[in-house]
Amino acid sequence: MRIFQNNIFLDQRKRGFHIITADILRAMPQINEINVGLCQVFIKHTSASLTINENADPTVRQDFEMYFSKTVPERDPDYRHDYEGDDDMPAHLKAAMLGSSVIVPINNGRLALGTWQGIYLCEHRNHGGHRSIVITAWGQ
């Protein structure tokens, strides 16, 4: 069993859904050394999240942003946590809905994503800042 772990900082991105698969692979070249295993990607924030979805058509990511903005609106008068800005509480809710980590199988030194799958950073704040990610890969 081999275990590798790396921490990376992603540059600030605008609010929306961003494919970060290439960032993950650049940060964890040791995946090439694993024949069969798993890779966990974890975000250390409560106002951004991770998910896996369509990697080819950018309108999918635009539709994700539209859907989540409609589903979890800003400036809801019932929010109590509002001192960090109109986008803060909705960002926490969206992050809770999507989650803070994804796990991808490793097969023959590669992430076993489907042809049209990519790992998304889901940035829910208007100005979220740099994001800290922990990548852990393990296997044989």
From TrEMBL:
- Family matches, as Gene3D superfamilies: YjbQ-like
Q: Which InterPro entries match?
A: UPF0047_YjbQ-like, YjbQ-like_sf
Q: Which domain of life is it from?
A: Bacteria
The cross-references to NCBIfam families, in alphabetical order and at most eight, read:
TIGR00149_YjbQ
| Similarity annotation | Belongs to the UPF0047 family.
This chain's protein is named YjbQ family protein
Q: Which organism is it from?
A: Mucilaginibacter pallidiroseus
